[in-house]
Amino acid sequence: MNKQISVWCIISMASIPLVMTLGNSMLIPVLPIFEQQLNINSFQSSLIITVYSIAAILLIPIAGYLSDRYGRKKVIIPSLLLTLIGGLVAGLASIMVSSPFIWILIGRVLQGFGAAGAAPIVLPLVGDLYKDDDEQASSCLGIIETSNTFGKVLSPIVGAALAAIVWHIPFFAISVFSFVSLIFVFFFIKVPKDNEPKDSFKTFLQNTKETFRREGNWLYVVFGIGIYTMLILFAILFYLSDILEKQHGIDGVKKGIILAIPLLVLCIASLITGKQIKDDLNVMRMILIVGLIIMGLLVPFVGFFEQNVRILLLISSVIGLAIGALLPTLDAMITENIEKGERGTITSIYSSARFIGVAAGPPLISIFMQNGLQVTSIMAGILGFGILICIFTFIKPNKTT
């Protein structure tokens, strides 16, 4: 690692996506419990995930611009504080209000705003810290993405365990995790001074527009892959959580452990991929191709094995392997190929794209679970091959930045 960057700095950066992942994914195995406690249906419970993501989508580009103009740390710290407050709002409402569903959604919106200014800003921060060393940047991004996916592994187990004590404890846990990460960031992340003059907002918009004019073809494909992978991941997690409890009678920590299996595969794949891709665009392109082929082939089978948990878990784990390889690759492609002045904005727009998938996955699958699940899973697989064609068409290392 770069001698100027301490291990604690890397741990502090990795804690941010870990907290944000726990703040969202931890609630997925608990949604059926929320339905019982709040007297709501599956679609309404999916909104607890969706409103968080929609709030993040709306604010992420603004947070990216602010981080470019005023500094990464000055945006991350208030955002973590906002996430902490959102957890308290949702948790206290669950205790003190007779019908707390709306207040829970308000708390989740606040957490979504916090997520917008925290996790997405980590990517350009890594690029700033390793601006002269693409290989080390890729390795660090692999650690960051692994932290993100490790949070996904822990989240169903932690969420189920906490909810088994009292159903609303996960909301308070999010506040505690945010506080710990905030302390880490405040004390251990030392952002290099940037004495370069800042552009006006008008110039910023012109530069961003020019970046998309120049790099748009491959950037749009990367954004599309980010949406697709997150949509498939969160749709499958919501689907597994629902059928394990309602059709197979598996709940609590046992259900959390089962949900963690494909996420553990995803986590390992992210760690290995982050160490291997370095700054080789040809390797990145090949990973994208192989990952999309795996997803396109296996996603259609998800809708046909709801009665066989073992096969469904195997399919989900292989899909998790593909997603785990794709995520750090996408991070590296954007972080290492966009100039510093626009890096925060472009990576933030990419993060917004990923949150679109997170927001859409649970409510869509909750609707299609009632009717048309098999046809929907087949169409999702075909969509993966459609994106694959875009990779062959628009991502060409000899023509890409």
Automatic annotation (TrEMBL):
<dbReference type="InterPro" id="IPR050189">
    <property type="entry name" value="MFS_Efflux_Transporters"/>
</dbReference>
<comment type="similarity">
    <text>Belongs to the major facilitator superfamily. TCR/Tet family.</text>
</comment>
<feature type="transmembrane region" description="Helical">
    <location>
        <begin position="79"/>
        <end position="106"/>
    </location>
</feature>
<keyword id="KW-1003">Cell membrane</keyword>
<feature type="transmembrane region" description="Helical">
    <location>
        <begin position="286"/>
        <end position="305"/>
    </location>
</feature>
<dbReference type="Pfam" id="PF07690">
    <property type="entry name" value="MFS_1"/>
</dbReference>
<dbReference type="GO" id="GO:0022857">
    <property type="term" value="F:transmembrane transporter activity"/>
</dbReference>
<feature type="domain" description="Major facilitator superfamily (MFS) profile">
    <location>
        <begin position="9"/>
        <end position="398"/>
    </location>
</feature>
<dbReference type="InterPro" id="IPR001958">
    <property type="entry name" value="Tet-R_TetA/multi-R_MdtG-like"/>
</dbReference>
<feature type="transmembrane region" description="Helical">
    <location>
        <begin position="157"/>
        <end position="189"/>
    </location>
</feature>
<protein>
    <submittedName>
        <fullName>MFS transporter, ACDE family, multidrug resistance protein</fullName>
    </submittedName>
</protein>
<dbReference type="InterPro" id="IPR036259">
    <property type="entry name" value="MFS_trans_sf"/>
</dbReference>
<keyword id="KW-0812">Transmembrane</keyword>
<feature type="transmembrane region" description="Helical">
    <location>
        <begin position="375"/>
        <end position="395"/>
    </location>
</feature>
<dbReference type="GO" id="GO:0005886">
    <property type="term" value="C:plasma membrane"/>
</dbReference>
<feature type="transmembrane region" description="Helical">
    <location>
        <begin position="218"/>
        <end position="240"/>
    </location>
</feature>
<dbReference type="InterPro" id="IPR005829">
    <property type="entry name" value="Sugar_transporter_CS"/>
</dbReference>
<feature type="transmembrane region" description="Helical">
    <location>
        <begin position="46"/>
        <end position="67"/>
    </location>
</feature>
<dbReference type="InterPro" id="IPR020846">
    <property type="entry name" value="MFS_dom"/>
</dbReference>
<feature type="transmembrane region" description="Helical">
    <location>
        <begin position="7"/>
        <end position="34"/>
    </location>
</feature>
<feature type="transmembrane region" description="Helical">
    <location>
        <begin position="256"/>
        <end position="274"/>
    </location>
</feature>
<feature type="transmembrane region" description="Helical">
    <location>
        <begin position="311"/>
        <end position="330"/>
    </location>
</feature>
<keyword id="KW-0472">Membrane</keyword>
<keyword id="KW-0813">Transport</keyword>
<keyword id="KW-1133">Transmembrane helix</keyword>
<dbReference type="InterPro" id="IPR011701">
    <property type="entry name" value="MFS"/>
</dbReference>
